[in-house]
Amino acid sequence: MKTPAIDMFGKVIDSTVLAFRVGPILPGNYGSRNAAQGRGFMSEKQLKLFGGGGTTLPEGFRYQPDILTPNAEHELLERVRGLPFKEFQFQGYVGKRRVVSFGWQYDFNERTLRKAGDMPSFLLSLRETAAAFAGMSPDQLQQVMVTEYDAGAGIGWHRDKAMFGEVIGISLVSACRFRLRRKVGSTWERSAIIAEPRSAYLLSGPARTEWEHSIPEVDTLRYSVTFRNFRSGA
Hints:
Layout: H1 3-9, E1 16-17, E2 23-24, H2 32-37, H3 44-49, E3 61-64, H4 70-80, E4 86-90, E5 93-102, E6 104-107, E7 112-115, H5 121-134, E8 143-149, E9 155-158, E10 164-172, E11 176-184, E12 187-195, E13 200-203, H6 205-209, E14 212-215, E15 222-230
Antiparallel strand pairs: 1-2, 3-13, 4-5, 5-8, 6-7, 8-15, 9-14, 10-13, 10-15, 11-12, 11-14
C-alpha cells in the first residue's frame, strides 16, 4: 500500500460510504476501475436494509449524471485534446496531471491570481450547460480549468482557493471516485460518489467551505472541466 494513500485516509476509515453507489472501502488505491464497473457496490436503499452505516452527501453538494450526450462529449473531446496543456506545478513540484486555464489562472508557485486568455467558443457553450445546472448566469462563471488525468494521476485533499465561490465540475471519458471529508473533533466525516463520464457536480455552501475533496489515482485517461465564479467581496 502506498504511503500517500495512508496519509490521505488517515488513521480512521469509515467502513462504508454513502453515495449514489455505496460499498465497503477498498484497501489501498480503490480507483476508477472498480468505480466504473460498480464491483461490490450497494445502493443506498440496499445499505439501509442491511443496517449499514456511513455519511450522506454534504449539504450544498449536487450531482447530475448525463448532463451531456455521448455525441456532445465526443465533439467536446475533439477540441479538448487540442488545448495547450502544461504539467501542473505546485511550489516547485510537478504533478502527474496536466492543466490549462482560461479567464483567470491561479499560479500555485507565486500564489497569485492572474488574468488568462479568453475562453474558447466551445467552452463558452459548455459554460452555459454548467450554469444552467447550477442555477447561475453563464457570465458569473469567469474562470475555467481543464485537467487531463492520465493513468496513475489523481489529486490530493484540498479546498479550492478562497477567492473562488461555487465550483462546477464536468467529467469526461472515464469515471472516478470523488471523495469528500471534513474534520469533526478528532475524526473525519467522510462521503464519496462515483463521478461518471458526462456527469456534473456542484460544490456550494458547506460542501464548498467546510469539506475538502480529492480524487484517488485513476486507472485510465480522464478529463475534467471545472468552472468557478468569484466569491462575493473577493
